[in-house]
Amino acid sequence: MRRDSEISVRTATKIRVRRLMQNSLFVVLLAALVALLAYFANEYRFEHDLTQNARNTLSQQTREFLGKLKGPIHVTVFATSQDARGDIRKMAQEFLAPYQRAKVAWLSWA
Predict the structure, then answer these.
(1) Do both 6 and 25 map to the same domain?
(2) Mean pLDDT of 55-73
(3) Which pLDDT score, from 0 to 100, does residue 105 have?
(4) In-domain check, residue 95
(5) Which residues form the domain of 74?
(6) 9 with 33, same domain?
(7) In Å, how far from its chain's centre is CA 12?
(8) What is the C-alpha to C-alpha distance for residues 96 and 9, in angstroms, rounded to an integer?
(9) How many domains does the chain have?
(10) Distance (Å, rounded) from C-alpha 13 to C-alpha 43?
């Protein structure tokens, strides 16, 4: 009788240790997956314009025009850092982002 009890205790201990190792491995792999997804989300940017008339997409003519320009484009924005509508600098950067992707541009603040 005692022998069966010792075997069941050892078996239960082995099962607990195995589950702990499996759970630990799962947590480590999940953390690695989250870190990898965070890296790719930060490294690669993907945008898709879902507006009905594609108003947030540069037209082909605009991209061709920007490609024909020689040298970088310099944009100077005269704005305060805060306005009643919010952060003007952030709004300007968001507005100019498609142009910066089409052609290297320099944005300066005055």
Answers:
(1) yes
(2) 79
(3) 55
(4) yes
(5) 60-109
(6) yes
(7) 44
(8) 68
(9) 2
(10) 45
Same domain, 93 and 70: yes
What the block records as the tokens of 31 is 């953390």
The amino acid at residue 98 is P
Same domain, 77 and 100: yes
**Lookup: tokens for 19:** 């589950």
Whether the CA torsion 75, 76, 81, 83 is positive or negative: it is negative
Average pLDDT of the segment spanning 8-19: 89
**Contact between residue 77 and residue 94 where contact means Cβ atoms under 8 Å apart:** no
Instruction: Flag whether the pTM goes above 0.90.
Output: no
Tokens representing residue 30 in the block: 């999940």
Query: Each residue of 78-105: pLDDT tens digit?
Result: 777 666 677 777 777 777 777 776 665 5
- Measure the CA–CA gap between 86 and 95, rounded to whole angstroms: 14
Per the CB < 8 A criterion, the answer to whether 95 and 74 are in contact is no
Q: What is the rounded (10 degree) CA torsion for 62, 106, 70, 43?
A: -70
Copy the structure tokens of residue 100.
């910066």
Instruction: Please indicate, yes or no, whether residues 17 and 40 belong to a single structural domain of this protein.
Output: yes
Structure tokens, 102 = 């089409």
